[in-house]
Design goal:
The chain is about 35% helix and about 20% strand. It has five helices and seven strands.
Length: about 180
Amino acid sequence: MIVGLGNPGPDYKTNRHNVGQQVLDVMALRLGVTFKTHKSLALVAKAKTTDGHSLLLVKSTGFMNLSGGPVAAVAKFYSIATDRIIVVHDELDIEFGDIRKKFDGGHAGHNGLRDLSAKCGAGYHRVRFGIGRPPGSMPVASFVLQDFSTVQKKELPVLLEIAADRVLESLQPNSK
């Protein structure tokens, strides 16, 4: 199960905080699937990779800070263990464009991860998409709820593809 974190609705779609859902949109396009509403307040798309992996792409239709409930409900409905979940999310502590994989760990102040860990447990995989820190004294909440800068928007399509690749690499045995 691959989860893209973000906020619902068109006002948030291209915000930094929604980069996880943007990666899932790229994956859905690649895999030729569309998201359908699931009864658990989530959008779900079922797909198969070229090497036969069955995937469940999941985007919560609730707000970031309440992502855990819908994700836990989908995981329970499909009987997916926490260690079989990959979460794609924005990461302040990584420079823009740097994409890293990680297993388990704390939430580092990310409220979406905090809620997800509280509802699902902490033993899930992550693909962390670096958005960098806000400039000057800009509040973090304002920064993550803004769209990427003009320069970053030019690089974003390629970076979303790279992040989708990292997610697919995470499906391979012994992937770190």
